[in-house]
Amino acid sequence: MDTINSENPEPEIGTNNQVIRIHNKLVESQSTISLGEQRILFYICAFLIKNSDLNLKESYEINVSKFKEIYGLDKSNSVYEYLDKLTDSLINRKLKIQKPHGEGFQKINWISYIDYKEGKGVLEVSFTSKMKPYLINLKSFFTEVGMMDFSSLSCKHSVWFLLQTVKWLKIGKREYTVEDLRKIVGVEEKSYLNFFDLKKRVIERAESELKKHSKYFFSWKVTGKKRKKIEKITLFFHKKQEEKKQIISAYDPVGQNVDNLVAIGFSKSKAVELDNKYKSDFLSWIITQLEERKNEKLKKDEKIKNYEAYFLAIIEREENNFRVDYEERKQKENKQEEFNKIRKRKQKEEIEKYIENQYSKKLRELASEKYFQFNNEEQTVILKEFESTLEGVFIDFYKKNKLEAPGIKMKFTIFLKEKLQIANTYHYTKFISDHEYEILESSSSFFLKKGDEIVKI
Asked: Quick one: 32 and 177 in the same domain?
Protein backbone atom coordinates (compact mmCIF):
# COMPACT_ATOMS: atom_id res chain seq x y z
CA MET A 1 0.00 0.00 0.00
CA ASP A 2 1.07 3.58 -0.63
CA THR A 3 1.74 6.23 1.97
CA ILE A 4 0.77 9.85 1.53
CA ASN A 5 3.87 11.99 1.79
CA SER A 6 5.37 15.19 0.41
CA GLU A 7 5.26 13.76 -3.10
CA ASN A 8 1.45 13.48 -2.79
CA PRO A 9 0.56 16.90 -1.34
CA GLU A 10 -2.92 17.64 -0.02
CA PRO A 11 -5.13 19.78 -2.25
CA GLU A 12 -5.04 23.47 -1.44
CA ILE A 13 -7.98 25.00 0.42
CA GLY A 14 -10.38 26.46 -2.09
CA THR A 15 -9.96 23.78 -4.74
CA ASN A 16 -13.02 22.00 -6.09
CA ASN A 17 -11.80 18.67 -4.72
CA GLN A 18 -13.72 19.10 -1.46
CA VAL A 19 -16.45 16.47 -1.68
CA ILE A 20 -17.06 14.03 1.16
CA ARG A 21 -18.17 10.64 -0.18
CA ILE A 22 -18.90 7.90 2.35
CA HIS A 23 -20.79 4.62 2.35
CA ASN A 24 -24.33 4.77 3.75
CA LYS A 25 -23.32 2.34 6.50
CA LEU A 26 -20.99 5.08 7.77
CA VAL A 27 -23.79 7.63 7.41
CA GLU A 28 -25.94 5.49 9.70
CA SER A 29 -23.15 5.36 12.30
CA GLN A 30 -22.50 9.12 12.44
CA SER A 31 -24.80 9.61 15.43
CA THR A 32 -22.43 7.61 17.63
CA ILE A 33 -19.28 9.64 17.07
CA SER A 34 -18.23 13.10 18.24
CA LEU A 35 -17.97 16.21 16.08
CA GLY A 36 -14.17 16.12 16.32
CA GLU A 37 -14.08 12.52 15.05
CA GLN A 38 -16.40 13.45 12.21
CA ARG A 39 -14.05 16.29 11.28
CA ILE A 40 -11.06 13.96 11.01
CA LEU A 41 -12.97 11.35 8.99
CA PHE A 42 -14.50 13.91 6.62
CA TYR A 43 -11.20 15.76 6.14
CA ILE A 44 -9.58 12.53 4.95
CA CYS A 45 -12.56 11.67 2.70
CA ALA A 46 -12.63 15.15 1.16
CA PHE A 47 -8.93 15.90 0.71
CA LEU A 48 -6.93 12.68 0.82
CA ILE A 49 -9.10 9.91 -0.66
CA LYS A 50 -9.74 10.09 -4.42
CA ASN A 51 -12.67 8.52 -6.25
CA SER A 52 -10.15 6.74 -8.48
CA ASP A 53 -8.34 5.05 -5.55
CA LEU A 54 -8.60 1.26 -5.58
CA ASN A 55 -7.01 0.62 -2.18
CA LEU A 56 -6.61 2.30 1.16
CA LYS A 57 -3.30 4.08 1.63
CA GLU A 58 -1.01 2.74 4.32
CA SER A 59 -1.63 6.01 6.15
CA TYR A 60 -3.06 9.50 5.64
CA GLU A 61 -1.22 12.59 6.85
CA ILE A 62 -3.40 15.48 8.03
CA ASN A 63 -1.79 18.91 8.03
CA VAL A 64 -2.92 20.15 11.46
CA SER A 65 -2.67 23.86 10.58
CA LYS A 66 -4.83 23.34 7.51
CA PHE A 67 -7.23 21.18 9.55
CA LYS A 68 -7.73 23.99 12.07
CA GLU A 69 -8.08 26.60 9.32
CA ILE A 70 -10.77 24.64 7.44
CA TYR A 71 -12.86 24.11 10.55
CA GLY A 72 -12.25 27.58 11.96
CA LEU A 73 -10.79 26.22 15.21
CA ASP A 74 -9.33 28.65 17.74
CA LYS A 75 -5.60 28.79 17.00
CA SER A 76 -4.86 29.69 20.62
CA ASN A 77 -6.06 26.29 21.80
CA SER A 78 -3.44 23.69 22.65
CA VAL A 79 -3.22 21.49 19.57
CA TYR A 80 -1.59 18.69 21.55
CA GLU A 81 -4.33 18.53 24.21
CA TYR A 82 -7.11 18.80 21.63
CA LEU A 83 -5.77 15.99 19.43
CA ASP A 84 -4.75 13.81 22.38
CA LYS A 85 -8.30 13.84 23.76
CA LEU A 86 -9.91 13.47 20.34
CA THR A 87 -7.78 10.53 19.20
CA ASP A 88 -8.32 8.63 22.48
CA SER A 89 -11.92 8.02 21.45
CA LEU A 90 -11.20 7.66 17.73
CA ILE A 91 -8.67 4.84 18.16
CA ASN A 92 -11.34 2.76 19.94
CA ARG A 93 -14.14 3.55 17.52
CA LYS A 94 -15.98 0.59 15.99
CA LEU A 95 -18.34 0.39 13.05
CA LYS A 96 -21.30 -1.90 13.70
CA ILE A 97 -22.84 -3.38 10.55
CA GLN A 98 -26.26 -5.02 10.82
CA LYS A 99 -26.49 -7.94 8.40
CA PRO A 100 -29.64 -8.20 6.28
CA HIS A 101 -32.55 -10.48 7.22
CA GLY A 102 -31.54 -10.68 10.87
CA GLU A 103 -28.41 -12.72 10.15
CA GLY A 104 -26.39 -11.00 12.86
CA PHE A 105 -23.91 -8.13 12.86
CA GLN A 106 -20.26 -7.22 12.27
CA LYS A 107 -18.06 -4.95 14.37
CA ILE A 108 -15.08 -3.35 12.65
CA ASN A 109 -12.36 -1.19 14.17
CA TRP A 110 -11.99 2.02 12.17
CA ILE A 111 -8.39 2.91 12.95
CA SER A 112 -5.29 0.72 13.35
CA TYR A 113 -2.96 3.47 14.57
CA ILE A 114 -2.62 7.24 15.04
CA ASP A 115 0.71 9.08 15.15
CA TYR A 116 0.86 12.80 16.02
CA LYS A 117 4.13 14.33 14.83
CA GLU A 118 4.23 17.58 16.78
CA GLY A 119 7.43 18.89 15.21
CA LYS A 120 5.99 18.50 11.70
CA GLY A 121 2.45 19.55 12.65
CA VAL A 122 1.08 16.34 11.12
CA LEU A 123 -1.46 13.80 12.35
CA GLU A 124 -0.91 10.43 10.68
CA VAL A 125 -3.96 8.14 10.60
CA SER A 126 -4.17 4.55 9.35
CA PHE A 127 -7.49 2.78 8.70
CA THR A 128 -7.94 -0.94 9.24
CA SER A 129 -8.21 -2.96 6.01
CA LYS A 130 -11.84 -3.91 6.82
CA MET A 131 -12.82 -0.24 6.33
CA LYS A 132 -11.96 -0.35 2.61
CA PRO A 133 -15.51 -1.16 1.32
CA TYR A 134 -16.89 1.86 3.20
CA LEU A 135 -14.34 4.44 2.00
CA ILE A 136 -12.75 3.33 -1.28
CA ASN A 137 -14.01 3.12 -4.89
CA LEU A 138 -17.65 3.78 -3.96
CA LYS A 139 -19.88 3.38 -7.02
CA SER A 140 -23.28 3.05 -5.33
CA PHE A 141 -24.99 3.14 -1.96
CA PHE A 142 -23.07 6.22 -0.81
CA THR A 143 -23.86 9.76 0.32
CA GLU A 144 -21.94 12.72 -1.06
CA VAL A 145 -21.83 16.17 0.51
CA GLY A 146 -19.58 19.20 0.03
CA MET A 147 -17.04 20.16 2.68
CA MET A 148 -18.48 23.69 2.56
CA ASP A 149 -21.82 22.33 3.79
CA PHE A 150 -20.18 20.54 6.72
CA SER A 151 -17.16 22.54 7.88
CA SER A 152 -19.02 25.34 9.71
CA LEU A 153 -21.36 23.05 11.68
CA SER A 154 -20.68 23.16 15.42
CA CYS A 155 -22.87 20.31 16.66
CA LYS A 156 -22.69 16.59 15.87
CA HIS A 157 -26.50 16.42 15.74
CA SER A 158 -26.47 18.98 12.92
CA VAL A 159 -24.12 16.70 10.97
CA TRP A 160 -26.56 13.80 11.30
CA PHE A 161 -29.43 15.98 10.03
CA LEU A 162 -27.23 17.19 7.13
CA LEU A 163 -26.38 13.65 6.02
CA GLN A 164 -29.99 12.49 6.31
CA THR A 165 -31.16 15.49 4.29
CA VAL A 166 -28.71 14.69 1.48
CA LYS A 167 -29.44 10.96 1.62
CA TRP A 168 -33.24 11.26 1.50
CA LEU A 169 -33.53 14.48 -0.53
CA LYS A 170 -35.06 12.82 -3.59
CA ILE A 171 -37.66 11.00 -1.48
CA GLY A 172 -38.38 14.30 0.24
CA LYS A 173 -39.57 13.29 3.71
CA ARG A 174 -39.26 10.69 6.45
CA GLU A 175 -41.30 9.98 9.58
CA TYR A 176 -39.62 9.04 12.87
CA THR A 177 -40.91 8.15 16.30
CA VAL A 178 -39.49 10.53 18.88
CA GLU A 179 -37.84 7.60 20.66
CA ASP A 180 -36.17 6.40 17.45
CA LEU A 181 -35.05 9.92 16.62
CA ARG A 182 -33.39 10.29 20.03
CA LYS A 183 -31.43 7.07 19.45
CA ILE A 184 -30.36 7.58 15.85
CA VAL A 185 -29.39 11.23 16.34
CA GLY A 186 -27.18 10.11 19.22
CA VAL A 187 -28.83 11.84 22.17
CA GLU A 188 -27.49 10.56 25.50
CA GLU A 189 -29.87 8.10 27.20
CA LYS A 190 -30.91 10.46 30.02
CA SER A 191 -30.63 13.74 28.09
CA TYR A 192 -33.54 15.81 26.74
CA LEU A 193 -36.22 13.38 27.94
CA ASN A 194 -38.80 16.14 27.58
CA PHE A 195 -39.74 16.76 23.92
CA PHE A 196 -39.51 20.52 24.45
CA ASP A 197 -35.83 20.12 25.40
CA LEU A 198 -35.18 17.75 22.46
CA LYS A 199 -36.82 20.24 20.11
CA LYS A 200 -34.91 23.23 21.50
CA ARG A 201 -31.47 21.68 22.00
CA VAL A 202 -31.29 19.28 19.06
CA ILE A 203 -33.92 19.69 16.32
CA GLU A 204 -34.22 23.48 16.17
CA ARG A 205 -30.49 23.99 16.68
CA ALA A 206 -29.71 21.69 13.73
CA GLU A 207 -32.46 23.30 11.68
CA SER A 208 -30.99 26.76 12.29
CA GLU A 209 -27.37 25.68 11.64
CA LEU A 210 -28.17 24.02 8.32
CA LYS A 211 -30.17 27.00 7.05
CA LYS A 212 -27.28 29.29 7.95
CA HIS A 213 -24.29 27.24 6.78
CA SER A 214 -25.46 24.74 4.15
CA LYS A 215 -27.41 24.60 0.91
CA TYR A 216 -29.23 21.59 2.39
CA PHE A 217 -31.80 22.09 5.13
CA PHE A 218 -34.90 20.51 6.63
CA SER A 219 -38.23 21.45 8.11
CA TRP A 220 -40.44 19.33 10.35
CA LYS A 221 -43.85 18.92 11.90
CA VAL A 222 -45.52 16.78 14.55
CA THR A 223 -47.40 13.90 12.88
CA GLY A 224 -48.27 11.66 15.82
CA LYS A 225 -49.65 12.30 19.31
CA LYS A 226 -51.00 10.02 22.03
CA ARG A 227 -53.10 12.03 24.44
CA LYS A 228 -50.87 15.08 24.85
CA LYS A 229 -47.56 13.28 24.34
CA ILE A 230 -45.76 13.84 21.03
CA GLU A 231 -44.75 10.45 19.63
CA LYS A 232 -43.91 11.03 15.94
CA ILE A 233 -42.48 13.80 13.80
CA THR A 234 -41.89 14.00 10.05
CA LEU A 235 -38.77 15.62 8.57
CA PHE A 236 -39.02 17.30 5.16
CA PHE A 237 -35.75 17.59 3.24
CA HIS A 238 -34.86 20.57 1.02
CA LYS A 239 -32.09 22.08 -1.06
CA LYS A 240 -31.72 25.83 -1.59
CA GLN A 241 -32.32 27.00 -5.13
CA GLU A 242 -29.04 27.99 -6.76
CA GLU A 243 -28.90 31.05 -8.95
CA LYS A 244 -29.69 29.94 -12.46
CA LYS A 245 -26.76 30.33 -14.80
CA GLN A 246 -27.47 31.87 -18.18
CA ILE A 247 -27.59 29.06 -20.68
CA ILE A 248 -26.26 29.49 -24.20
CA SER A 249 -28.42 27.56 -26.63
CA ALA A 250 -29.57 27.72 -30.24
CA TYR A 251 -32.43 30.03 -29.32
CA ASP A 252 -31.07 31.93 -26.36
CA PRO A 253 -27.32 32.52 -26.75
CA VAL A 254 -27.03 35.12 -23.98
CA GLY A 255 -24.02 37.33 -24.52
CA GLN A 256 -23.38 35.89 -27.98
CA ASN A 257 -25.82 37.88 -30.11
CA VAL A 258 -23.45 40.73 -31.00
CA ASP A 259 -20.72 38.30 -32.12
CA ASN A 260 -23.24 36.26 -34.12
CA LEU A 261 -24.60 39.36 -35.87
CA VAL A 262 -21.08 40.45 -36.82
CA ALA A 263 -20.36 36.92 -38.09
CA ILE A 264 -23.26 37.05 -40.58
CA GLY A 265 -22.42 40.51 -41.94
CA PHE A 266 -23.39 43.29 -39.54
CA SER A 267 -21.04 46.03 -38.41
CA LYS A 268 -20.16 46.00 -34.72
CA SER A 269 -22.03 49.25 -34.06
CA LYS A 270 -25.22 48.05 -35.78
CA ALA A 271 -24.98 44.70 -33.97
CA VAL A 272 -24.78 46.52 -30.61
CA GLU A 273 -27.75 48.71 -31.62
CA LEU A 274 -29.89 45.64 -32.43
CA ASP A 275 -28.77 43.93 -29.24
CA ASN A 276 -30.02 46.90 -27.23
CA LYS A 277 -33.29 47.13 -29.23
CA TYR A 278 -34.52 43.54 -28.89
CA LYS A 279 -34.74 41.08 -26.04
CA SER A 280 -31.85 38.65 -26.16
CA ASP A 281 -33.81 35.46 -26.78
CA PHE A 282 -35.99 37.09 -29.46
CA LEU A 283 -32.96 38.53 -31.23
CA SER A 284 -31.28 35.14 -31.20
CA TRP A 285 -34.37 33.69 -32.87
CA ILE A 286 -34.14 36.40 -35.57
CA ILE A 287 -30.46 35.53 -36.08
CA THR A 288 -31.31 31.87 -36.74
CA GLN A 289 -33.81 32.98 -39.41
CA LEU A 290 -31.27 35.31 -41.05
CA GLU A 291 -28.63 32.56 -41.06
CA GLU A 292 -31.07 30.30 -42.90
CA ARG A 293 -31.68 33.01 -45.51
CA LYS A 294 -27.95 33.52 -45.95
CA ASN A 295 -27.34 29.77 -46.37
CA GLU A 296 -30.09 29.62 -49.03
CA LYS A 297 -28.40 32.43 -50.98
CA LEU A 298 -25.01 30.72 -50.74
CA LYS A 299 -26.45 27.40 -51.95
CA LYS A 300 -27.93 29.13 -54.97
CA ASP A 301 -24.63 30.96 -55.48
CA GLU A 302 -26.51 34.29 -55.25
CA LYS A 303 -24.23 37.08 -54.13
CA ILE A 304 -25.35 39.82 -51.75
CA LYS A 305 -23.19 42.93 -51.79
CA ASN A 306 -24.38 44.32 -48.46
CA TYR A 307 -25.67 41.69 -46.05
CA GLU A 308 -26.34 44.29 -43.35
CA ALA A 309 -28.73 46.30 -45.55
CA TYR A 310 -30.28 43.07 -46.87
CA PHE A 311 -30.91 41.71 -43.37
CA LEU A 312 -32.18 45.03 -41.99
CA ALA A 313 -34.77 45.09 -44.77
CA ILE A 314 -35.86 41.55 -43.89
CA ILE A 315 -36.15 42.45 -40.18
CA GLU A 316 -38.19 45.57 -40.96
CA ARG A 317 -40.48 43.69 -43.34
CA GLU A 318 -40.90 40.48 -41.37
CA GLU A 319 -40.45 41.44 -37.73
CA ASN A 320 -44.09 40.68 -36.88
CA ASN A 321 -43.87 37.26 -38.54
CA PHE A 322 -40.67 36.52 -36.65
CA ARG A 323 -42.37 37.52 -33.41
CA VAL A 324 -45.40 35.30 -34.06
CA ASP A 325 -43.15 32.33 -34.89
CA TYR A 326 -41.03 33.03 -31.85
CA GLU A 327 -44.03 33.22 -29.50
CA GLU A 328 -45.48 30.00 -30.91
CA ARG A 329 -42.17 28.22 -30.42
CA LYS A 330 -41.85 29.52 -26.86
CA GLN A 331 -45.38 28.38 -26.05
CA LYS A 332 -44.62 24.91 -27.39
CA GLU A 333 -41.37 24.78 -25.39
CA ASN A 334 -43.17 25.93 -22.23
CA LYS A 335 -45.92 23.34 -22.71
CA GLN A 336 -43.33 20.63 -23.27
CA GLU A 337 -41.42 21.74 -20.17
CA GLU A 338 -44.61 21.66 -18.08
CA PHE A 339 -45.50 18.25 -19.49
CA ASN A 340 -42.04 16.94 -18.59
CA LYS A 341 -42.39 18.28 -15.04
CA ILE A 342 -45.74 16.53 -14.59
CA ARG A 343 -44.38 13.30 -16.08
CA LYS A 344 -41.32 13.36 -13.80
CA ARG A 345 -43.48 14.07 -10.75
CA LYS A 346 -45.68 11.07 -11.60
CA GLN A 347 -42.59 8.90 -12.12
CA LYS A 348 -41.28 9.85 -8.69
CA GLU A 349 -44.68 9.18 -7.08
CA GLU A 350 -44.83 5.75 -8.77
CA ILE A 351 -41.33 4.90 -7.53
CA GLU A 352 -42.16 5.99 -3.98
CA LYS A 353 -45.38 3.96 -4.09
CA TYR A 354 -43.46 0.93 -5.39
CA ILE A 355 -40.93 1.16 -2.52
CA GLU A 356 -43.71 1.59 0.06
CA ASN A 357 -45.54 -1.46 -1.35
CA GLN A 358 -42.34 -3.52 -1.19
CA TYR A 359 -41.79 -2.36 2.37
CA SER A 360 -45.37 -3.25 3.33
CA LYS A 361 -44.93 -6.68 1.73
CA LYS A 362 -41.73 -7.22 3.72
CA LEU A 363 -43.47 -6.26 6.97
CA ARG A 364 -46.25 -8.78 6.27
CA GLU A 365 -43.64 -11.48 5.63
CA LEU A 366 -41.87 -10.70 8.90
CA ALA A 367 -45.22 -10.68 10.73
CA SER A 368 -46.06 -14.13 9.34
CA GLU A 369 -42.64 -15.46 10.36
CA LYS A 370 -43.12 -14.15 13.88
CA TYR A 371 -46.64 -15.60 14.10
CA PHE A 372 -45.39 -19.11 13.32
CA GLN A 373 -42.85 -18.80 16.12
CA PHE A 374 -45.72 -18.68 18.65
CA ASN A 375 -47.03 -21.88 20.21
CA ASN A 376 -50.48 -23.27 19.31
CA GLU A 377 -52.21 -21.63 22.25
CA GLU A 378 -50.81 -18.20 21.39
CA GLN A 379 -51.73 -18.64 17.72
CA THR A 380 -55.31 -19.53 18.70
CA VAL A 381 -55.66 -16.34 20.76
CA ILE A 382 -54.37 -14.26 17.84
CA LEU A 383 -56.76 -15.97 15.39
CA LYS A 384 -59.76 -15.28 17.62
CA GLU A 385 -58.78 -11.64 17.90
CA PHE A 386 -58.38 -11.47 14.11
CA GLU A 387 -61.80 -13.09 13.57
CA SER A 388 -63.41 -10.40 15.75
CA THR A 389 -62.16 -7.73 13.32
CA LEU A 390 -63.86 -9.26 10.26
CA GLU A 391 -67.09 -7.89 8.83
CA GLY A 392 -69.71 -8.87 6.24
CA VAL A 393 -68.93 -11.67 3.79
CA PHE A 394 -65.40 -12.06 5.15
CA ILE A 395 -66.82 -13.64 8.32
CA ASP A 396 -68.42 -16.41 6.23
CA PHE A 397 -65.32 -16.79 4.09
CA TYR A 398 -63.17 -17.26 7.18
CA LYS A 399 -65.53 -19.76 8.85
CA LYS A 400 -65.56 -21.95 5.72
CA ASN A 401 -61.89 -21.92 4.73
CA LYS A 402 -60.04 -20.14 7.55
CA LEU A 403 -56.87 -18.42 6.32
CA GLU A 404 -57.10 -20.04 2.87
CA ALA A 405 -60.30 -18.15 2.03
CA PRO A 406 -60.12 -15.49 -0.75
CA GLY A 407 -58.70 -12.23 0.56
CA ILE A 408 -58.40 -13.52 4.13
CA LYS A 409 -54.68 -14.28 4.08
CA MET A 410 -53.84 -10.72 3.02
CA LYS A 411 -56.12 -9.29 5.72
CA PHE A 412 -54.53 -11.55 8.31
CA THR A 413 -50.94 -10.51 7.49
CA ILE A 414 -51.98 -6.85 7.59
CA PHE A 415 -53.64 -7.48 10.97
CA LEU A 416 -50.48 -9.23 12.22
CA LYS A 417 -48.27 -6.42 10.99
CA GLU A 418 -50.25 -3.88 13.03
CA LYS A 419 -50.75 -6.08 16.11
CA LEU A 420 -47.13 -7.13 16.39
CA GLN A 421 -45.93 -3.60 15.53
CA ILE A 422 -43.39 -4.93 13.05
CA ALA A 423 -42.69 -1.43 11.70
CA ASN A 424 -41.30 -0.46 15.11
CA THR A 425 -38.64 -3.18 14.91
CA TYR A 426 -37.91 -3.02 11.18
CA HIS A 427 -37.87 0.60 10.13
CA TYR A 428 -38.39 1.97 6.65
CA THR A 429 -34.88 3.43 6.62
CA LYS A 430 -33.45 -0.01 7.49
CA PHE A 431 -35.47 -1.56 4.67
CA ILE A 432 -34.11 1.02 2.19
CA SER A 433 -30.59 0.39 3.46
CA ASP A 434 -30.88 -3.43 3.27
CA HIS A 435 -32.20 -3.32 -0.30
CA GLU A 436 -29.81 -0.55 -1.43
CA TYR A 437 -32.60 1.48 -3.00
CA GLU A 438 -31.67 4.83 -4.56
CA ILE A 439 -33.98 7.21 -6.41
CA LEU A 440 -31.90 8.85 -9.13
CA GLU A 441 -32.79 11.77 -11.37
CA SER A 442 -31.74 12.60 -14.92
CA SER A 443 -32.75 15.68 -16.90
CA SER A 444 -35.77 13.85 -18.32
CA SER A 445 -36.83 11.27 -15.73
CA PHE A 446 -36.60 9.63 -12.32
CA PHE A 447 -35.58 6.00 -11.97
CA LEU A 448 -34.98 3.53 -9.17
CA LYS A 449 -31.68 1.79 -8.57
CA LYS A 450 -31.27 -1.29 -6.38
CA GLY A 451 -27.59 -1.91 -5.78
CA ASP A 452 -26.08 -1.85 -9.26
CA GLU A 453 -29.32 -2.67 -11.10
CA ILE A 454 -32.13 -0.49 -12.43
CA VAL A 455 -35.55 -1.59 -11.18
CA LYS A 456 -38.31 -1.86 -13.79
CA ILE A 457 -41.58 -0.55 -12.39
From this structure: no
